[in-house]
Amino acid sequence: METDDVSVREQLFHNRVRETIICVLLFTCLYMVSYLILTHFKKTAEFVTDDIEDATVNKIALWLCTFTLSVAVCAVLLLPISILSNEVLLTFPQSYYMQWLNGSLIHGLWNLVFLFSNLSLVFLMPFAYFFTESEGFAGSKKGVMARVYEAVVLLLLLALLVLGIVWVASALLHDNIARKSLYDLWEYYLPYLYSGISLFGVLLLLLCTPFGLSRMFSVTGSLLVKPRLLEDVEDTLSCTTFEEDTLSRKLNCGSTSCWVKLNMEAMKKEYQTVRSQRIALEMRRKASPWQRNLGYPLAMLMLLALTVMCVLMVCFNVLELLLDETAMPRGMEDPHLGMASFSMFGSLGAAVQVVLIFYLMVSSVVGFYSSPLFTGLLPRAQDTNLTQIIANCVSLLILSSALPVFSRTLGITRFDLLGDFGRYNWLGNFYIVFLYNMLFAGLTSASLINTVTWAVQRELIRAFGLHRLPLTVSRSTVPFRLLLASGLSKIQ
Description:
Elements: H1 2-41, H2 52-91, H3 103-133, H4 144-173, H5 175-180, H6 185-223, H7 233-252, H8 258-262, H9 264-286, H10 289-323, E1 331-332, H11 346-370, H12 386-409, E2 417-418, H13 430-463, H14 480-491
Parallel strand pairs: 1-2
Helix pairs in contact: 1-2, 2-3, 2-11, 2-12, 3-4, 3-12, 6-10, 6-11, 6-12, 6-13, 7-9, 10-13, 11-12
């Protein structure tokens, strides 16, 4: 019996060591990738200044931002890794090389992401912001430690304020629980706070994702070479080149007139815009017929298919919510990987679920940065200050940490939430989940219909040359007969 107990303890020890090594390796890779991304966008002047103290503070804040961004990327990968791990274990149930891929490892990843998300949102990112903005208390000796003391004091005051707000909110909603759990900080208030943050993230995804799904068509179209029906590319390119040369001469003339000084910045922006248009036109002219006439339509059809598939899955989930209680999102303690597929279509359906999860995440990020409220946060290569980097990392972490709950609530996947992700109070409310699904389906359908109709109208107007009409003429009042007549005259 003692030998059996020792062997069991050894096995548990080796399993724990193996899982720790895998998690450390995964997080190290994500940390390096995140550091490269932030290095690409950071403003170099903030890190090579003559003030060694500011440079040190900025480097420490950048390391904290890198940690937060790596946690956000890991949160995005939670559901895909879990779904693919289950399918791999189903495909190779007896494989010796796949024994390390088990439910304990996946459950540990979910718990670590939840812990690090709380740590980053509640402590690290506020500390990074206060650390970069602090200068030390008045009368104290200047240095990095003085700024650390001030940042810690501000962080403690913020923590007291936030915990007070959380306690008041919980007292209003659950009076008895709030009185009994006044000192239960770790087990009650932090998960309660993160539940509110997750609800905010899910609501933000509800607003950004439908808008992002519609914006994906224009963003993809700007990256690809798209065909222009009934348009002379050579004529447009020559006009753009002439305009670029004119602006270049105006910028290089060195005139000292007051008018040029006042409009120099606007002229530089116009020159950059015209130059980018000229480069895009040259790429379109050099593109092969296959790339010009086949690549763009296939990309648009793929985006349309993915968007329609998302809407159909959400509509099917709405019907299941009305008929079956098991369709409600819930948490589970043991994932039981390798027992059954989480899709009725097997491995193919699981692969489609993974693709849709990534597609929704990309669409939500596109919609977030395209919205008028958050356009100013859009990072620029080598020109993003540290405060803006902190704001971007916080925003991406809120979106990505809400992605598992978002995907499960919409019925994109049947993989139930693990760990503390399934402890959110609002997940068990049928009316919230049902209304959320209906709003997402309605907003996405409306955005998609609006995008397609406006895109068709815009392309027809551009193809028939009506975009050259003076601005005083309203294009919405152009009759269809004029549009048809213009098209027939061009064809003839």
